[in-house]
Amino acid sequence: ALGIGANTAIFTLTDAILLRWLPVEDPQELVVLARNPSRPSYAFNYPDYRYVRDHNRSYSGVIAFSGGARPVSFSIPARHEGPQLVALAMVSGNYFEVLRVQPALGRVFNTVDNETEGAHPFVVLSHAFWKRAFGEDSGVVGRDVLLNGRRFQVIGVAREGFTGASVGVAPDLFAPIVMYRSFNPSASFWNTRMQWWLTVMARLKPGVTKAKAETELNVLWQQILQNDPRRRPVATWDKEYKINNTAVVQSGSTGQSYLRNQATKPLTVLMITVALVLVIACANVANLQLARGITRRREIAVRLAVGAGRGRLISQLLTESITLSILGGVAGLLFAWVGVRVLLGFLPRFGPFAMQLNLSPDLRLLGFAFGLAVLTGILSGLAPAFRATRPDVAPALKTDAATSSEGRAPLWDLRRTLVCFQVALSLLLLAGAGLFVRTLANLKNLDPGMTRENLLLVETNVGQLGYEPQRERGFHERLREEVQRLPGVRAAATAAITPLSGSRWNNNVQIEGYRWRPDEPPHVDMNAVTPRYFEAAGIPIVLGRDFRDGESLAVLPKRPDPPPDPRAEQPDIPGPPRVAIVNETFVRKFFGTESPIGRRLCMGEKWNPERTYEIVGVVRDARYFDLRKPVEPMIYQPMYREPRGGSGGALVVRTTGDADGLIAQIRRRVADVDGAVSITETRTMIDNLNRTLVQERFVATLGTFFGAVALLLAAIGLYGVMSQSVSRRTREIGIRMALGAEARRVLWLVLRDALLMVTVGAIVGAGTALVVTRYAESLLYGIKPQDPTTLAATAVLLLAVTMLAGFVPARRATRVQPMFALRHE
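^ thats the sequence. predicted structure below, dont judge the formating
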């Protein structure tokens, strides 16, 4: 039950993330478009999508959709209920048509809903959200709803079971891509080729292969690049330009998910782990059946003596074994049902939304469990069946095997081999678990460059409400002032990028006194922050000073509509002198040992004296993007100083005590400052750190659990073998005791067998671990796969537990009464 259940649980998760087909018509015809065959990138911009859609000959339809779920504020005008946070997916007008998904109510989008930017304020509800929010009201079609305060009309309800083409995401609503600026007013997508936010899928025409479609896509892609000179290679540092711009067509039958790149290797490791646990369980059952076969020797001999064929007896014994396995498999399904829901707690979140997967059992999962049960029965029963049907018939008929003593067992037999095999596999699994646990500990103990305790991050939807930049800035400043006055708040600030949030922003930079080498990209990571951000985030200023309030613009110009191309040279924005703060890595790379204070830098591809920044401070390195990778150079600029720094932003709050205790008060302050703004997500820095380590925590926790299960099974196997050995040697032990053997000599006599089996198994397991763990090296951090400390600690633990299991029957042997043993021959 344990072995089959564990395998079924992991397979259920693997199936849901990697294998299960989309619930649409003919999913095998779907393909996903990507770039870079070595590390596929699935992000496209809207103009490129339209070009492929309008110029291809391989697809019957091409769709685009946002890869994740956007959090938006949802309310119904007729109800007096507060807004709720829902998940929104933005899709092209032909999305439902190409996927061949029919509505359960009303209609879905069509190509007409994809023509004019901002002119199609319609939404389609998911079936689950329709039931939850509207109680399956059939009159919902035609009703208005408010999304981030904007009015949209419900035109239909998607059919039941359809959750979109992104695996792990279950949108509550679908909106046309052309309404993008209703949810992100500060950006445009219509003619901008530098916003990469769409996933593109297509349905192949009959008779068109993926290879042919890929060849055509590469031709179209080169045409796109030729029509956009800014995306051609401009320097020798762009040496990967060709491979980055090689188009790839992949199967889309299982949908698209950014989770797959992170989950594939951990799930593969866990599938191998639980498979080995099942093998250990099979070895245990085989050992038990070998012992049972000894007690049935007389029965088997009688059957053979009266004419039963050996093949028929083997069939009977295998039938018994398979029946036992199927019963275990039924119990294993219950274990899998519970286990897979525990596994969901380890999966990452999409912003404020939990991972949504289809974990309902189907015929494939039931078939997997049934097939596993049958296979288990055969594996665990085959060797005992062959062994049991080969007795020496005459002696077996004369002796009752259940009560006789056969003297000392041979030095090595099948049962001892199975125990060694179990010990070896247990050591391998425990060594792997030890490496994963130490990796997790190394990353959790890694200094992120900031004080992680008592730090709260609060995100709102103010950047999606279409406010003028001045009004948005006013909201942030008033909210910071209100939060700063709360009891228990040490410092509050606003930042465009928060540490370990998954967001990233970089810009081309020219630096005074530094010339970019031909082999390095001329851009640096950026962040925009308000004064006191470094105090709030717990990032020490090591040189110079913090920003001052007057160094942000007092009045921001209105962004033109449509906005200019982001790669074009921007006009200078008047205001106070521009200042910047850099991190220590920036100083080491660009200035060496010289002081950076007073040095200048310029944003853009060319030096512009009117758009220069003066460096006024240096802060400690902080890890913003990946705990595993070295810190990159970073430039901090004042919030709102440039157009990019005035959109959105998260509130960063440093507290004197428990950060979670302030969430309710901050929520009230947000409502007081602007009732139209809602909080989309609150999390602590510890939460951010844990989200970053979700893969490591997943593998370490489950690896440890299954390693412990394997150790327990190996101990039980050793206990069983030693118990039977003591029973078979009762007469021998009685004679030794009658002749004066001491109890400790008898104890060592029995333990020696256990020690021999454990030692042989440990040697084989250690050698295997040294080879196999190399394949998991990419999952490790701060430790080598052949780490001697981990291997030694694992071996000591294994030896202690297994010898404890062997000690119990050995101790029982020392209590054998000689007269009793000799009398019961």
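The longest strand covers residues 150-158.
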